Each structure stands twice: as structure tokens, then as C-alpha cells.
Amino acid sequence: MTTTYTISLLGFGGVNRALAELITQRNDEWQRDFGFRLVIVGVSDLALGSIIAPGGIDARVLTQTDFGRGGFAALSGGSADPRSLDVVRDAPADIVVEATYTDAITGEPALSHCRAALAAGRHVVTTNKGPVALAARALTAEAAREGLRFDYEGSVMSGTPVLRLARQALAGSGITGFKGILNGTSNFILGRMEAGLDFAAALSEAQAAGYAEADPTADVEGHDVRLKVVILANELLGADLAPSQVDCSGITALTPADIATVVSNGQRWKLIGSASRQTDGRVEARVSAECLPVTHPLTGVSGAVNAVTFTTQMLGDVTITGPGAGRIETAYALLSDIIALHRDRTAQMHQEAAE
Amino acid sequence: MTTTYTISLLGFGGVNRALAELITQRNDEWQRDFGFRLVIVGVSDLALGSIIAPGGIDARVLTQTDFGRGGFAALSGGSADPRSLDVVRDAPADIVVEATYTDAITGEPALSHCRAALAAGRHVVTTNKGPVALAARALTAEAAREGLRFDYEGSVMSGTPVLRLARQALAGSGITGFKGILNGTSNFILGRMEAGLDFAAALSEAQAAGYAEADPTADVEGHDVRLKVVILANELLGADLAPSQVDCSGITALTPADIATVVSNGQRWKLIGSASRQTDGRVEARVSAECLPVTHPLTGVSGAVNAVTFTTQMLGDVTITGPGAGRIETAYALLSDIIALHRDRTAQMHQEAAE
Fold first, then answer.
1. CA dihedral of B28, B30, B32, B35, whole degrees rounded to 10
2. Which of A86, B105, B189, B322 ranks highest by number of CB atoms within 10 Å?
3. What single string gives the DSSP state of each residue in A117-138?
4. pLDDT attached to residue B345
5. Residue A185 and residue A303: Cα distance in Å, rounded?
6. Can you tell me the mean pLDDT for B127-150?
7. What CATH topology corresponds to B3-159+328-354?
8. One of B113, B228, B270, B345 is an active-site residue; which one?
9. How many CB atoms lie within 10 A of CB B53?
């Protein structure tokens, strides 16, 4: 039996474009291995416009055409306007895939996209840190009330399955805290500073290599990591933190001398996002540069790679290391959410039939 | 709703004793978090004897009494004889927990325990590499025919969830191979040799620290790793390998000079178990000491810690690092199998009711 999921893509930048490419390449494999196929019925993008196509859009056309500004207008069901809320409401999608830009203060427009999708009876999967850091609990509750899913594996460490590892494979292990290298740009810069560059030169290299944005503030001041710490602390430690409640500093104050001093001892400076449950039950979270001893499992994590070490009652430290960014890597996170949704939905359908 | 699972413990050494301790400490927590409790109704141990107690055995008595040889005879339903197959058949357990010693050649007596348990309609969870490396596919098929589970998270890396990570959280990522540090003893010895000791001195230290057995052959010649490579290759790459088909060498031929030479370049010798799917579809697997470059994610894994790096089509390399041994750590693997069984069984019960 094959299930077809119709999906709408909000944002057609690198991530959702990569998901569309995967659909062209792997629908048959997913049908064989998992029993589902994906069909795109809606797309919205600030630059390209929007498409509402209940009969399905050929993913090959989407990924292989060089659309200019407003270029979706040329397609059947297309418009030059990015009518994202119309796409959410009117394209008949089972699942809305939110991958627009992250606004760390308001979470908008992604937050409204997620709410509108759930209100319209559609599951939501997202890679967007904004709505997850600001409102994961409310959105999850909203989804549960409607018998829907709100999933966001890609909001932390792209497709490296940090959330699903903690929720499923470490169930019952007693997670009491975590420490993570959650920003590849800053980790790359620290590595280059260890090689002797000063901060400005290392940043230029990161920008040339495509790791750092023209405005690197969110990466090097820790703001990006802070959103991920909030997501992990709220999800894994049952906290209810807002980003503003997490003390946050970055790596800009570190000098080449600070770094050289510790390297000779085998230690390394890392930008660490961490949280832990205190004896009184409170969860304390922070983002700051920390000097890790040579024996810490995160000390060897180099370049743009990310990693999280969970502290558990049963296993001590367990660390997962993998990519923290990348088009295909982040698109895989969306796929992994859809695979999980499919597995749970199949079980749930049987359950409802039994009641 | 609370489900009570009755369990029989085969082998009452460190691991099953730790599971019994967890039962005394955490049954209420499991009831609250997952909806089940565990009750021990059978125990068998070569030294201590056996117990068959349909009404349940107080786990506190089991863990707090200092039983001598044949000491189970003093308990109600007890005997000085280790009648393991009687316990499997006659103790009314939902789940048989196999944690006797590993025989790498025949898998016995564990293999017969597993078969008898499945034939008696009981689920099996095990930490025993022998039956898993030799017969996981047959036992899994046998279990499936009877609507039962055969699970073995603890057969590789104790409770570090390497199997469940690969099966669930990395589903659809396209795993094409893996490399692992799968034996803590040899990794500890290599670390001490990096600090300047020769093999014999490093081995003595490992034995003094409790890492190495009196007969360290299985650890230092790679035989222990070979079983784990077979388990992972068969499970994750769909291979059908027997241990004898895997080329295997250990760390005994490495000299302090071999090790010192590479350390100065930032490289490290590691005992690596690996497998990968070749372009012709065959799976090649091996165990050997490898000189890893400073950039490899396994290079920084020190001491008795274990780790596996999966190579995937979607994410590149993803590495999980954690304990590879330990009483509580391995007992947690059994618990994690029972949690997974409970989650799936709950879904399956609904499914059967629907049909």
C-alpha cells in the first residue's frame, strides 16, 4: 500500500529546493522502503512568487528551471506574488514544509505560517529555528489538539538527528543536561585562530568559504546558538525558557593569545551552548566561549562540524557529531520528520479504527 | 493504564543484577513515564542456581542478598541447579532477558535460550553478542513469525544506542558504511602506549583498571570487535556475513615506535572495525589497526570510550560516541529494548484490534 502525501513548500531557497531535488530522485525508493511518495501542490517564495496546483507540480520543472524574480507566474496556478498564507490555506497539502528565513525576535512570518497550517488541518515540518525556539510547546499542543504533527528535527544541527536520538533512542536514560557545539561558523573561526589568524582574518576566511554571512553577528555573538539551546532545553529537559532568559556571549572577545595559551596544554576554546537541570529542578542555560579540557568529547570537534554531548544518569556522556548545516543535510531533516510522521500516522490510523 | 511485563533473567552476573537494581529503583518512574512495570518471575545462573516464581520475586531480595554457590535454593521456587531451559519454558515470562556469557564459535548456550524462549511465545532481549552475530536474521524471522520481538541494542556499545540510532533516527539517510572503535580495552591500551608504555605494560595497566580480562585475547586480537562488525554490517548494510568471513587482526603487533611516529603528525592508531557497501553491492568488512588522520571523527576518541561513524548519502559522516561497557550502561540497553517493545506492542495491539 502506498500513501501519497501532498506537501506545500514555504520558502524556495536552498533547503526546500534540495527537498524538491530529493523528490525527483528518490520517490520510488521511499515508496519501496517506507510506503509513501511526496507530491508538491503548493510553493511560496518571497522572490519567486507562488504556485497553487492541486493536481501536483512536476518537481523536475521546479528544480531545473531558472526562475527570475516573480518567475512562478509563468507556471500553471502560478503568481508573481508570494502569497504564502494563501498557499497554506488553499493548496490542498497534507503537510506544510516551513523553510523561510528565521526571525529570532518575532518568529514571523514563520510563526503565522505554522499556526495557519495547523488551523487548516495540515501537519507542519520545519527547519526554522524562530517559531520552534519561541513557541514549540504552544504549536505542539495546537497540533496535538487537531490530531496533527509539528516536527522540527532540522531546527538544530540540520539533519543530524539530535532531537530524535534524545526522544527515542535515549528514552529512559535520564538526560540531565547537554553541552553543544551548535554553530559551524564560529567553530571554523576558532580553528583558524588556533592556526594563528586573528579574529578578523579568520572571519574573512569563513566568509570566503561560504560559512559566514555578510553580517556574521548571529553566528559569532552566539545568538544562533542561543535559539538552539532554548529548543533543546525546552524539549529535552522540560524547561520553558525564552531566548531572552539565556545568558549569551560569543567569540569576538577572544584574542589569538587567549587561544594560543590553552592550545599548548591540549585544551581548546569552543563556543558552547549548554543547559542542565539543577538540584532544585530549575534548568540553567547559557551560551559562552568555554575552554574545554583535552579529554572532553567536544574538544576534538573541528571545522564546521557540530556536536552535542548529552549527560545521562544511565550512560554518562553520549555524544552525537555530524553536519550542522548544508542544503541536502537540512532537507534530509524534513524527510526524517515525514518518515516519522508516516510511521506514527500508520500506527495511529490503526488505533482510530480500533476505537 | 499500566502494563506489567513479567521477565526471566538468564545469567545473574553484573548486567542482569544491574537490571534488577534498576527495577528496585525505577519501576515507579517507568510506570509514570512509559506506562509499564517489570516483575521478575524467573532467574537462572550457572553459579547461583535458578528460581521459578510465577507470583514474582522481590528484586530487592535478589540484589541485596549475598548468595553463595547454589544459593538460590534457599528461595521459594529456587534450586541450586542452573536449569536455564526450565526457567525459559516454565517461568511465565513475557520477556526473556539473555545475559549469559558469549561463546563466539557456537553461540551456546545463549542461542538455545533464545530459540526456546521464542518457541515458548516469549519476547527476547539480549546483550549477548554470540547469538546475535551468528543468527540475528534467523532469530528475528523466528520472532516475527510468532508476533514476538528479538532485540539486542546492548550487543554493540552497551547502552549507547547505535542500533536504534541507525534504524530509526537515520532512516532514509542512506547508510553506505561505518567505522567504529568498538573495544574499550584495546583503545585504552593504545592510549597508554601513546603515553610511552610498551604493549605488555599497557595491558597490565588495563587489567589492573578492570578493563581487560585475565585472558585478553578476544579484546586485543580483534575477535570481540569482529562480532560487533558482523552485527552492524548485517543489520545496517543488509549483509549476511559470518564472523569467519571478516578479516581480523589486532593491536599486538604495534610497537611503541609505530605509535610514536604517527603521534607527532597528529595521527593516532586505532583498532577499527569497519564495513562498507561496494559498487557491486557486496559488503566488505574488516577489523584491523588503522592509522587515522587528525581530522577523522574517531581520532579524538580516547580511553575506554567507544564510537561509530556512519557514512551516509544524505549527511556525510555522523558519529555517536559513548560508553562501550559497564553494568548499568549495559542494563540500560535491555531497558531501552523493553521501552521500544512496549511502544511498538501498544501500537500493534491497536492494530490487531482494528483488523
1. -120
2. B189
3. HHHTT-EEEE--HHHHHHHHHH
4. 81
5. 8
6. 97
7. Rossmann fold (3.40.50)
8. B228
9. 20
Domains of chain B, by residue range, sit at 3-159+328-354, 162-322
Give me the CATH code for the B162-322 domain, please. 3.30.360.10
Q: Decide if pLDDT at A263 tops 90.
A: no
pLDDT at residue A353, as a whole number = 59
pLDDT tens digits, B25-37: 999 999 999 999 9
Q: What is the pLDDT of residue A349?
A: 66
Q: Average pLDDT of chain B?
A: 95
Which of A161, A315, A322 faces B332 most closely, judged by CB atoms?
A315
**A34, B171: Cβ pair inside 8 Å?**
yes
Q: Which three cell numbers, joined as nine digits, stand for B247? A: 578479516
Q: Does residue B179 carry a catalytic annotation?
A: no
**pLDDT digits 0-9 by tens, B45-98:** 999 999 999 999 999 999 999 999 999 999 999 999 999 999 999 999 999 999
Nearest to A297 by CA among A316, A275, A277, A278: A316
CA separation (Å) from B65 to A44, B97, B200?
68, 21, 39
Nearest CA-CA partner of A70 in A61, A57, A79: A79
Spatial separation of the C-alpha atoms in residues A282 and A330, rounded to whole Å: 32
Q: Cα–Cα distance between B62 and A4 in angstroms, integer? A: 53
Query: Is the domain A162-323 a CATH 3.30.360.10 member?
Result: yes
Instruction: Work out the average pLDDT over B214-219.
Output: 91
Rounded alpha-carbon distances, angstroms, from residue A308 to A173, A180, A329, B10, B297: 16, 4, 17, 36, 14
Q: Which residue of B has its CA nearest to A158?
A: B315
DSSP string, B28-61: HHHHHHTSEEEEEEEEEETTTEEEEEEEEE-HHH
Of all residues in chain A, what percent carry a pLDDT higher than 90?
Answer: 90
> Is B279's pLDDT higher than 60?
yes
User: How do residues A77-120 score in pLDDT, each as one tens digit?
Assistant: 999 999 999 999 999 999 999 999 999 999 999 999 999 999 99
Chain A residues closer than 8 Å to B170 by CB: 161, 336
ipTM of this complex prediction, to 2 decimal places = 0.96
Q: A343: distance to nearest CA of chain B, Å?
A: 10
How far away is chain B from the Cα of A62, in angstroms, using its nearest Cα?
Answer: 21
The distance of B74 to chain A (nearest Cα, Å) reads: 32
Which cell numbers hold the place of A189? 573561526
For chain A, what is the radius of gyration of the CA atoms?
21
State the burial class of residue B176 (Cβ atoms within 10 Å of its Cβ: 0-12, 13-18, 19+). middle
Nearest Cβ partner for B161 among A169, A336, A351:
A169
- Which whole number is the average pLDDT over A258-275? 91
Determine how β-strand B175-181 pairs with β-strand B247-248. unpaired
Per-residue pLDDT at A194 = 92
> Is omega for the bond preceding B131 within 30 degrees of 0, making it cis?
no
